[in-house]
Amino acid sequence: MTVQEIHIEIDLALQDINSNRREKFFSEEKDWLFNLATRRFISQRINPKSNPKGQGFQSTIKRYQDLDQLLVPSSIPLYYLDDNTSYGILPQNCHEVIEESGIRPLLARTDCGLRYSDFSLINIDRSVCPVLFPQTTQLNGNTLNAFKGFKILMDNTVIYDTGNYPALVNGLTDTDLYFTIIDQILREVNKRTDVEVRWEQFNDHRYDFSLIFVSLGNNSFNTISYQYTSNVGTSPVTVVTNAIQQRYQEYNIPNTVNRIERPSRVIKTADYLNTIYHPHWKPTWQSPIVHIENGLVKVPHQKRFISNTLNLTYIRKPNKINLSLNQGSDFGDSVISEIISNMVTDIIAKVDPQLFPVYKNQDNFVE
């Protein structure tokens, strides 16, 4: 279903409300309400308490199939934090690590067979570049025209260009798109395999109103540049930011080490310290521990084993629909219709409580 068809179905579903309103719903309102309903739909699907059958996400076939296109298997490298802990960084587009019956199915690849003293560390340098997103004052007060020909370059390579998108060829037609374009940059740049970009936060550090560009794998870069037009003159303005090199330490695991993949226990923050020091609950190679906090994954270990990779499956953030940019939904027609129905039910409950019971009874559905 295209974004235009989504809006048509929303209009049809909103007829009862629109007939009682002096003003109609704007396209931006429909986009925002649908995206909000999409996030709520995902939360309901992965929450066993919202399931009449009382089963977890993967135990109900329909709930699993509804979100199947959002499931992403991932292998996260773990780095040295201290002598007793490894850590990794969750992917930028991670919405939720899937949970089944209260235990998240994380698999930590645990390396056994040698004592900790037999492992060595390798220095890994990663390019990190926080760049303040262009604001109105930077664009000489000309926000709309400034994004005509807006480009982002990594060294000399263009990694984002508004000229590739018909809706943005002539700049921004609406000031609201100034904020929407940030989501588009995150989505498009993060399709690359040599660099990723995050918004405002990376590795427990916050950079307000900034895009943070991070090299992936063995790649590196020196600069990130913005190019945009100016209302003064015809030449594009270029703003260059130098990257910094952050050093990480990876474990050098000898080939002679046996690698055993074991299910991991996910521990809440409040229980973390009590668990790792408890004589019976502490991490072992048979039952490693994983702790997730602020976008970081921490894996404590002992002298007899160490973890250098964490395999997990997560639900990625859904694409946001946007009529102006012709951006559609990730979901199929049946799921979109269900999201729209939930969205309209919530709206009616707020703007016309008398109509809500009638509409809700028409739309009752139990999995």
Name the features:
367 residues; alpha+beta; 18 strands; disordered C terminus
What would the average pLDDT be, to the nearest integer?
76
Could you give the order of the helices and strands?
Answer: HHHHEEEEEEHEEHEEEEEEEHEEEHH
Number of domains: 3
| Residue runs with pLDDT of under 50 for 5 or more positions | 99-107, 137-141, 361-367
How many distinct helices? 9
* Backbone CA Rg: 24 Å
Span of the ends, CA to CA: 23 Å
Strand content: 25-35%
Please state the overall shape, judged from the principal axes of the Cα atoms: flat
Main beta sheet: strand number and arrangement?
5 strands, antiparallel
Strands, count = 18
Structural class by sheet pairing and helices: alpha+beta
Please estimate the helix content.
Answer: 10-25%
Describe the structure in your own words.
The chain is 25% helix and 32% strand. It is α+β, with helices and mostly antiparallel strands and 367 residues long. The protein has 3 domains: 3-65 and 320-362, no CATH class; 80-114 and 258-316, no CATH class; 125-249. The strands form 4 sheets. Strands 1, 4, 5, 14 and 18 form a 5-stranded antiparallel beta sheet that branches. The chain has a 5-stranded mixed beta sheet with strand order 2-3-17-16-15, with no helix packed on it. Helix 1 (3-13) packs parallel to helix 8 and helix 3 packs across helix 8. The protein is flat, with a radius of gyration of 24 Å.
